[in-house]
């Protein structure tokens, strides 16, 4: 992690710039010593050691120990924390109970289960078939939720293929409060006083799952486009479903 990260964070806080810090948890001491950020994410890309080595190709031999130590340090944080699980279809979408064990060690405020996107350098190692449909992300999220009685699914963002879970303590009098009051955060961060995640929450404007079936939507759009091309005698008339989804559904 950048050795002057705290100086940078404190400057952002002073200037009213939000800080969402995402880490793969290989520098636990840096997480322990981290200055307050708007929200701290740790990516948990696999539920057990050998799978994590295959998915992340870590630099350090003690990568598993570093991850677990980082999760323990996350549990000590007072501001908003989130575990991000990137769902890589067919590779790390198993053992929800082991994911739950790691998540409970970190005691995060939120959990994001996000579908892998076939972009960037990952295309050198993974195929487009590793990219799950949104409904598959929802299904995997529900499996994880079953293992975490203190958490519940709150909402989703279909274009990003993300499902968010939160601690049930964020459901106040039957109303979810998972959004951020940014103005309040910066006031607190610059006050010099201790503060916690619950001090800068806002009501969640939209909750629940849409039930959208994105694969069916892609199939229907592909069918209509093929019919249109056939009627116009234009080429190509064959379109791979994943290619079509990547361009038109996300």
List the helices and strands and how they pair.
Elements: H1 5-14, E1 20-23, H2 28-32, E2 39-43, H3 49-56, H4 63-74, E3 80-87, H5 96-106, E4 110-115, H6 134-146, E5 151-157, E6 162-167, E7 171-172, E8 175-176, E9 179-180, H7 182-189, E10 201-202, H8 214-232, H9 241-248
Parallel strand pairs: 1-2, 2-3, 3-4
Antiparallel strand pairs: 4-6, 5-6, 7-8, 9-10
Which labels suit this protein?
2 domains, alpha/beta, 9 helices, two-stranded antiparallel ribbon, 6-stranded mixed sheet, disordered C terminus, globular, TIM Barrel
Give a written overview of the molecule.
By secondary structure, the chain is an alpha/beta fold. It folds into two domains: 5-202, Aldolase class I (TIM Barrel, Alpha-Beta Barrel); 214-248, no CATH class. It has nine helices and ten strands. It has a six-stranded mixed β-sheet, with helices on one face. Strands 7-8 form a two-stranded antiparallel sheet. Helix 4 packs across helix 5 (96-106), helix 5 crosses helix 6 (134-146) and helix 8 packs across helix 9 (241-248). The longest helix is centred in the last third of the chain and has 19 residues, at 214-232. Mean pLDDT is 90; it is low at 246-250.
């Amino acid at each position: 992690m950048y050795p002057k990260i705290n100086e940078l964070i404190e400057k952002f806080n002073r200037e009213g710039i939000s800080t969402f810090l995402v880490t793969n948890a290989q520098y636990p001491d840096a997480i322990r010593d981290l200055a307050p950020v708007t929200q701290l994410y740790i990516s948990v890309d696999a539920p057990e050691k050998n799978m994590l080595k295959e998915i992340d190709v870590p630099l350090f031999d003690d990568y598993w120990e570093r991850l677990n130590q980082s999760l323990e340090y996350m549990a000590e944080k007072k501001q908003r924390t989130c575990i991000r699980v990137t769902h890589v279809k067919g590779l790390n979408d198993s053992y929800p109970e082991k994911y739950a064990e790691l998540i409970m060690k970190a005691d995060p405020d939120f959990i994001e289960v996000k579908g892998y996107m076939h972009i960037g350098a990952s295309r050198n190692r993974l195929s487009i078939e590793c990219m799950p449909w949104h409904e598959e992300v929802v299904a995997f999220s529900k499996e994880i939720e079953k293992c975490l009685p203190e958490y519940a699914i709150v909402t989703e963002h279909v274009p990003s293929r993300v499902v968010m879970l939160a601690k049930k303590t964020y459901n106040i009098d039957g109303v979810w409060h998972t959004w951020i009051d940014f103005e309040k955060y910066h006031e607190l961060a610059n006050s010099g006083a201790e503060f916690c995640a619950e001090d800068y929450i806002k009501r969640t404007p939209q909750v629940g799952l849409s039930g959208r079936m994105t694969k069916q939507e892609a199939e229907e759009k592909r069918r209509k486009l093929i019919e249109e091309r056939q009627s116009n005698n234009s080429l190509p008339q064959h379109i791979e479903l994943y290619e079509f989804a990547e361009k038109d559904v996300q």
